[in-house]
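User: For a benchmark we're assembling, each entry needs the component sequences followed by a predicted structure for the full assembly. Here are entry 17's components. Please fill in the structure.
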Amino acid sequence: MTYIAKPKFQHPGIKKNTLGYSHRDYEGKISTLCAGCGHDSITASIIEACFELSIEPHRVAKISGIGCSSKTPDYFLGNSHGFNTVHGRMPSVLTGANLANRELIYLGVSGDGDSASIGFGQFAHAIRRGVNMAYIVENNGVYGLTKGQFSATADRGSKSKKGVTNTDNAIDLVGIALQLGATYVARSFSGDKKQLVPIIAGAIQHKGAAFIDVVSPCIAFNNHAGSTKSFDYVREHNDAVNRLDVLTGRDPIEIDQDPGTVQIVEQHDGSRLALRKIDADYDPHDRLGAMTFLQKHAAQGQIVTGLLYVDPEADDLHSHLNTVERPLNRLEAADLCPGQAALDKINASLR
Amino acid sequence: MSQQAPLSSVNDFVVRFANVNGSGSASANELFARAVLRHGVPVSPRNIFPSNIQGLPTWYEVRVTEAGYLGARGGGTDLMVAMNPQTWDKDVAGIVPGGYLFYDSTKPMPSTKFRDDITVIGVPLTAITNSTYSDPRQRQLFKNIIYLGALSALLDMDPKLIEQLIGEQYKGKEKLLSSNVHALHLGRDWALQNLKCPIGLRIRKADKVGDRIFIEGNNAAALGAVYGGATVCAWYPITPSSSLAEAFTSHCKKLRHDPETGQAKYAIVQAEDELASIGMVVGASWNGARAFTTTSGPGVSLMTEFIGLSYFAEIPAVIMNVQRAGPSTGMPTRTQQCDLIACAYASHGDTKHVLLFPEDPAEAFEFAAVAFDLAERLQTTIFLMLDLDIGMNQRLCRPLKWDDAKQYDRGKVMTAEMLEEGRDFGRYLDVDGDGIPFRTYPGTHPTEGSYFTRGTSRDRYARYSEEGAVYADNVQRLLRKFQTAQDMVPRPLQANAAKPTKYGVIYFGSTAPAMDEAIGLLESRGHHLDRLRIRAFPFHSSVASFIAEHDFVYVVEQNRDAQLRQLIVNENGIDPVRLVPILHYDGTPITARFIADQIGNHQDHIKVTPLRKAVS
Ligand SMILES: Cc1ncc(C[n+]2csc(CCOP(=O)(O)OP(=O)(O)O)c2C)c(N)n1
Ligand code: SF4
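Assistant: Structure for entry 17:
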């Protein structure tokens, strides 16, 4: 690109990356999500990762489905093209976009409802094809945007805000991604920026299908019945106020955890997550080992976080299809059209 | 049954081959059709097959037509090549009085299995084959060539021309070539020695084919996609559209590899379903590549949510819909023109989509290529509306033509240079008053021209907004854009009757060849009609004027609910009484006889009781 970044007045002391960009160059619109939503913390980590990698923001295409999580691409990288597609179908749109121009960076953002229910098939197939992308699921176990129904990642036995007990088994997207041949698989927690930022940065740099499951608490709909801080409780005691306006803002949950330890994280609703950060000597190049590790700790009620698997030699869909280096969207008639002479031969063969 | 004089006709009859699916007869039958063509005599063949892979009946019908009528003739078979015991009774019953029955006479059959008003020709095919070949697969395959040889003698065909065709087919494969030619002569010689050759039906050399080519519509449309610059194809198998994507794949393999690196200048993905295939098309087009998918009715149903996104977010997409009989799974291997309403208004909310209606493979090629220009120019979904009858049958048509000077119309794309000049970029701004805004490709410029694409309402600068006025402004512009499309899509073609007439007929797509023939039949009954072939939706203004110029107009189509008529009434505010529906929807291709009978009867009726008597 011959274009230089816009000159913008900034405090001379502000931290800049090697492109001369500051954090602000990686920000987007102001978030309209509930204050304290885990998704906003993930947004902050994406901004941080892109800043640290000195990515030109406009070289990123950010594509999402539908849901609170899928709204977030509007809140980062304001100078890049975003695409809020249809519910659950981000992976196919991203695949098509990637085929059209292999030079951009593809960031897919989705929710657990989006990816584990309506879009489960598309999630699986994009991974299986090895599309070069960083696919992030902002996993809160519920449907946020449609107000609190269970998603397919909700644990069996967990209770919805309406007091309904989930009797279905949960889908573990990380386990499935490993099974489907993703070449970069990680799980993290929205509040653990220290862990999440490098994981996102690694996924962006990875050539191939990178999948990250990020546990991301929903402050609005994972609060249990009877809580005085619950949505219903507040509404019952405050008739005059609009539903969304009365959501109490909270500080996002943040943690700081050492490798190899288990940390109990209390969510807004008082429920607890046991996060196990993988050891420093964990071998992330062993797919089978990763799957066993994951299953073993799941049986103990622990959610393993960290980079679980990476294949540094991975290739992607373009290599499988042996497509030209030049982006397909830049090919013109001269490159693509075989011309009348070739057509004459075809005509002759059809007589 | 009384004795009937055997039919006698030169270069004008219908041969039907009844076979068992999977017996390898298709290539022999096609060879027959092509051999007739090499005699300079036009043919119009049709595949009639069940939705089954092996074992069930298939038929291949060849209409030999020196006059060049390319629609299905209808009205029974003149020469039945009955190779399938399963369908014997039906096949024998389908022969016209005086017609011929050709069968394998190796096993004796009771006389009740025949009719006495037809000529029965028995050739001991199995016996000849078994005495020559020991390998079971060879027996099966060469039996087909042997009956072809016998037919060539019975119909007085030039064996040299057939040998030549076999030679072209097995070029470089000497063994296959000579064994096929040998089988051909086995059958031919047996017939010449044992039967009275030729029969009353004969092929005589003529010069009526010219430089026309013989090609399936799906293959031609696939070539159109290559020439139109499509680089991304995402599809999901469904009859009768699969062969389109498969043909695109094989053309790309031959024509689209970089000679130096061997790398592909295209990407083809067999998606997991139709939701994904159209999603990939939308993603690729959003990112500036020319992309398309191929499908049929059920696939269109699944794609509708994305079609709405393409319409509202204004993203180009090309869908090649090879129609089959619906609703639901309908009759997967039978033809209809039944997806007009489903495609024209696909998706929820107020939507309208552009449809193109090619009449034959040559137009399928042209329209497929033009669909990509239109999709990018209009930034919306374009449907290429084929059907099984065009898509999966070989048709004679004019040679495919391409203007080498042609550049692709990439539509209104704002480049980095334009943004640098300080051009105001509003993704949904109607800068030219034609309803078509500018778009930018992702990655264009570091600070200018990026925007957020969504299926949710937004203002002219692509900012999310649910303001009523902002929404209305946007959807009004989309209507304006649809009006602009009227003058960009292929125009209707009008042909006037030899005599001035108060009556007209409107038709489209694969009905065209039958209509050309029907007009002649009607003229011979004294009915003269002006005709208008519609080639696209939205309808050009000439459709309304054509209707206004005639007392009433027949609308001929291949579906139950008169979908084209509905669209005309709905979109042009025409009084429905003025449009008389002529409908054919049993899954077989419409025939000239059907059209002429329906319109003729109606016309006769009008002459008896004029509709337009003054009542005052
Ligand atoms: C076809 C379709 N069905 C249903 C919906 C309604 N819908 C919108 S968002 C959503 C679920 C979102 O859940 P999730 O992906 O987990 O995201 P979250 O809001 O929790 O971040 C649903 C069901 C829709 N938009 N489209
Ligand atoms: S409803 Fe839940 S997921 Fe949605 S913004 Fe609020 S906290 Fe986040």
